[in-house]
Amino acid sequence: MIKNGNVVFTRDFENRKRHAEQEQKLKEVEKRIPPGYRSEIRMYQKYCKETRQLETIESLMDFLFVSITEEAVKKNTWEKRVVALRKYFSVTYDISFDEEIRKTVANIRKLYQEDDRKRLKKETGKLPVDLDELLNIIDILDTRAKAICLVNLDTANRPNEMVNLKIQDFQLDGRIVNVFLQKQDKWHNKRLQPGTVRAVQEYIKEYGLQPQDYFIGRRSKGGNFEGVKISETAYRKQLKKWTGYTPYNFRKTMVAFMHSAGADLSTIAKQTGHRSLETLDKHYLNVADATVDKFMDYKK
């Protein structure tokens, strides 16, 4: 190839082309807003519409202020809101949080330090449920629902981990399912109970599932099964409909059961996929009331 009297080697041209394509792809990745942020973004957009404000830094600070003073959201929810909207403004309006904006956010955050808002800093989260009661509920479900619920219980999967499972991720002979942990950006093997393996085998046989099918899939209004990926929101609603509980109730129930059975933190983390033992201990392992009562019974 000849250009302006200079010889341009084909390999150099291909390299430059590939580098440009990579740079473009990385820019697209950087501009991508995670699905988990959409709910907070919609709430902000709705607030702007209701208050007849444009989407500006001023209306954003107003929204964050009102979120505490009027909506009284939990602090951990508020912090997620800040992260989501910071990304939204960066992608949509090319506005980054400079020192002045960060200072304003920090001052708004200090509202949580006031006496009448200290309870908003409590991190309660979803609670574990009675395992026997949950298993009784699962036992009477249909083949598909039963298999999905048992897998969620065994693996203590997060919603995003459940909706991304495919049939090809199961190694039923070895009682293993390979789960992609988005938080750690890696694949991780989780164990399955023999009863769960049988339930999954029955599900695969009854529905004629193929390796490329998504494990949860969906049923159309006509009752036909489609092995497609569903949203995390749809999955939460489905699990709630089947059992009355959320995926995080399932997750905490398995953690609590393993802990009460004598498993140490490392063993629990190996099954759940927790990277931090401190997070596992702080947010998942609360001593049950029944255990406290047992050691307070001085009237025996």
From TrEMBL:
The Tyr recombinase domain extends over 122-297
Any idea which UniProt keywords this protein has? DNA recombination, DNA-binding
Pfam families reported for this sequence: Phage_integrase
> Highest taxon of the source?
Bacteria
Q: Does the keyword DNA-binding apply?
A: yes
Q: Which SUPFAM superfamilies match?
A: DNA breaking-rejoining enzymes
Q: Cite the Gene3D superfamilies for this sequence.
A: Intergrase catalytic core
**InterPro entries per UniProt:** DNA_brk_join_enz, Integrase-like_cat_sf, Integrase_catalytic, Tyrosine_recombinase_XerCD
Which family does the UniProt entry place this protein in?
Belongs to the 'phage' integrase family.
Put simply, this protein is called Integrase/recombinase XerC
Biological source species = Siminovitchia thermophila
